[in-house]
Amino acid sequence: MWSYVAWRVIYVIPTLFGVSIIMFFLLFVAPGDPLATLLPPDATAADRAKLAHSMGLDKPVYTQYVIWLGNALQGDLGESFHNNVPVIDEVKAALKNTFILAATAAVLSITAGAVLGTIAAFNQGRWLDKVASAIAITGLSLPNYWVAILLIIVFSVTWGVLPAQGMQTIGGAGSGPLDVMKHMVIPVVALMMISVGIITRMMRASVLEVLDREYVTALRGKGLAPYSIVYHVIKNAAPSVITVVGLDFGYLVGGSILVESVVNWPGAGGLLNLAIQRRDIMVIQGTALALASIFVVLNLVVDIFNTMIDPRIRRT
User: Which residues does 57 contact at the CB level (< 8 Å), separation at least 6?
Assistant: First the structure.
């Protein structure tokens, strides 16, 4: 097992290296001028050249990449062009807030999806199966940012029972953990809709595949208790579902940009969206690299966890 884990860890290095190359050079291909928002309208060519030199943007792209990569390997992601704050500090603060949303949405969606998928599989063709499948399809069909807007209209504008923006009430008497939880309801529900649909469908398909195997029939023939059969079925269906869950959590962390923008949540999505609007290259690079690293590490953790559940994976 340890040799398998070692090889999987080694594969992470070229993956992150490739991600950094693609991400860095795509920023220079994309339209937009990072200096335009920093210079006054009456700036001269000399002013522009001076600013570009001070920021290191007058060097060839490959030279800029080598310098940036060397600094990134030492934990230095540069400074924001707009506020001169270290990018690593901004990314840490934003990721902390994003993890609050992503972890909550992941726990709820995994629980709901696993329960719905298992119920649907054990009741194939019955009304419980149809209800669970309808919930899954509905979740997959609705864009999460649209769900966030709809929830704001209903629960914030019309009924006034939930806050519409931000992470907590600024200067309000009700600020605190409960206030933060109230602000989390809309973005968490919006984020978990697609995840519930994906996990439900995957869990249903995996459990149905296991139920068709001969050993399940043998367990039933021996008179094994129903809850024991469910345990064995779920254990054998788990590896494929865990893979989806790991990827889904990466999606929740990296794909929350639209939801965070809608509800003005101070997370990585909001930071990345603001950096794109400002063309703040250093913040875009740092945030994108952090999100990509999280996604790659999650894949590694999922692969290792799968080998612990199903030893056959180590021999493939």
Answer: 34, 35, 64
**R_g of the chain, CA atoms, integer Å:** 24
Cα–Cα dist 104/280, whole Å: 30
Please, are residues 208 and 121 in contact by the beta-carbon 8 Å criterion? yes
Model confidence pLDDT, tens digit, residues 226-269: 778 888 888 888 777 877 887 788 788 876 788 988 898 988 88
- Mean pLDDT for the stretch of residues 151-156: 94
* Residue 79 DSSP class: B
Please state the separation of Cα 81 from the chain's center in Å. 26
What does the pLDDT read at residue 306? 72
Which amino acid would we find at residue 188? V
User: DSSP secondary structure string, 268-308?
Assistant: HHHHHHHHHHHT-HHHHHHHHHHHHHHHHHHHHHHHHHHHH
* DSSP state at residue 86: B
Averaged pLDDT, 289-299: 86
In contact, 284 and 275? CB cutoff 8 Å: yes
Triad 244, 22, 279: Cα angle to 5°: 105
Task: Decide if pLDDT at 3 tops 80.
Answer: no
| The one-letter amino acid at 142 | L
Nearest to 116, CA basis, from 137, 101, 100: 137
Instruction: Render pLDDT for 187-228 as a digit per residue (tens, 0 to 9).
Output: 999 999 989 999 999 999 999 988 888 877 787 777 777 778
Residue among 264, 91, 90 nearest 166 (CA): 264
263 touches 168 (CB < 8 A): no
Six-digit token pair at 161? 């029972």
- Burial classification of residue 65, based on how many CB atoms lie within 10 Å of its CB (0-12 exposed, 13-18 middle, 19 or more buried): middle
Handedness of CA 285, 288, 293, 299 (dihedral sign): negative
Angle at 145 between CA 140 and CA 150, to 5 degrees: 95
